[in-house]
Amino acid sequence: MIKVSLPDIQAAAQRIAPLIHHTPVLHSESIDAIAGCTVYFKCENFQKIGAFKMRGASNAILSLSAEERAQGVATHSSGNHAQAVARAAKVLGIPAYIVMPETAPKVKIEAVKGYGAEVILCPPKLKDREAYLAEVVSRTGAQVIHPYDDERIIAGQGTAALELLEEQPDLQIILTPVGGGGLLSGTAIAAKSLKPGIQVIAGEPLGADDAYRSFHSGKKEINTSTNTLADGLLTNLGDRNLEIILQYVDDIIRVSDEEIVQAMRLIWERMKIIIEPSCAVPFAAVLQQKERVAGKKIGIILSGGNVDLAKLPFR
Q1: What are the residue boundaries of the Tryptophan synthase beta chain-like PALP domain, all occurrences included (predicted)?
Q2: Domain of 27?
Q3: Among 40, 95, 166, 291, which residue's Cβ finds the most Cβ atoms within 10 Å?
Q4: CB 299 within 8 A of CB 42
């Protein structure tokens, strides 16, 4: 039984306020004309470390006791969660131990080191990452901060939707991308608690669609292989996250890489902001489902802007 509720998310919002940005909500008339609806973008690409992950990591670490914090925190991640844990630990003056696959981009490894974390490189398979993390915890006594399958993380991620609905209470649909499910499950709890009639929808890449299949089968499905440029959404859905999604989420829409690139390019061109491919997935779902969203007031959480500029999917 999942214990995350609206009061938990509201408490998280107060707890993490000193460590995060209250990100802006942007609107574009040209985007509205293209999409056929009114779209408000919650810009977590402007968040600390460039992604919403800073919210959950901050809440999880700040929820620890002083004694637990003193032992440090540990996680395994190749991307934004690694940077979020490292930065939150640096601000709070505690040790951080981050297990990263040796295949992770060098720029991300250096960014985590730049926040003062100890980086432990490992082979890229999940079993190796988990084994290395277990060794770190055994050696240091550090507290594990899971990227998404953690109630403290879920509550923290839900604060983005809380802020969005405070500014735009009349939204009829709210959308996020889905990978491990931390952002989607936190958003769903916040949105449905504040406004039971709102629709909560996720966008997911066609080439990594375990959440879509899990949503329809009612049990956890696994990706045996992945093939999408939305590299932030390759993780399989967490157990807690699936339970929340089955209870609160209205639909999950799959989109192709071609649709993701089109949506990403439109936001770059029309809104003049940088977003990563994973971030464009829910807007791609809106563009795909124009009849469904026609004339409605839509909120989209732009999850992050950590794109490798040398590997842009368009020119």
Answers
A1: 17-304
A2: 6-51+150-311
A3: 40
A4: yes
